[in-house]
Amino acid sequence: MRLVGPTVLFAAWAIHDVEEALAFPATCDDLADRTNIDSVRIDKHQSWAAVAIMAVIVTAACWRGQKTGGRSSMYRAALAGLEAHVYTHLAASASLRRYTAGVATALPIMLPGALIARKELDRRGHPLHMGDVVRGVCLLIPSAIVSQLMARKIRRRARGSRKSRS
Question: Domain locations in the chain?
């Protein structure tokens, strides 16, 4: 029996990450201005590259979820991590007292998508556990950092090859 959860989770993540990709450069600029740490600045190309890299990870997790009937530890980790990620957006905006990238779609899009997927697992007798949340944090935080670092490196190489052609 096919699951709807992995598809709904991926769609919610994709919509959410489009918003993040569009807004992340401005959020990073604000953070750089507040902290005087210029290295946190990113441009729109880096933002989209990082989302594309994360898309590979989220796609793989959702695909595994579909193939295993929701029993894949990668899918369960991604689901639990993306659900928890909603609250990081709320905390970031609350602490800065302003809009931050991703907060506009966290509650109306990402949370319902994650809850639909979670409830489907509950109905099938495979509820998420705290271990899934821990694995989700261990999967998504390093993945987000690595995707940003890879995107930065890709962006630098692209700039370098344009300069060498000039």
Answer: 5-155
Q: Do 152 and 42 contact (CB within 8 A), yes or no?
A: yes
What CA–CA distance (Å, rounded) separates 64 from 24? 29
Burial of residue 125 (number of CB atoms within 10 Å: 0-12, 13-18, 19+): exposed
What span, in angstroms and rounded, lies between the C-alpha atoms of 17 and 24? 10
What's the distance, Cα to Cα, between the start and end of the chain in Å? 56
Three-state DSSP state, 108: helix
CA-wise closest residue to 17 among 91, 139, 118, 110 = 110
Contacts of 160 (CB under 8 A, 6+ apart): none
* C-alpha span between 59 and 143 (Å, rounded): 13
Encoding tokens for residue 52? 């594309």
Each of the 166 residues of the chain gets a pLDDT tens digit; together they read 689 999 999 999 999 999 999 999 999 999 999 999 999 999 999 999 999 999 999 999 999 999 999 999 999 999 999 999 999 999 999 998 999 999 999 999 999 999 999 999 999 999 999 999 999 999 999 999 999 999 999 888 887 766 666 5
- Indicate the pTM of the whole model: 0.91
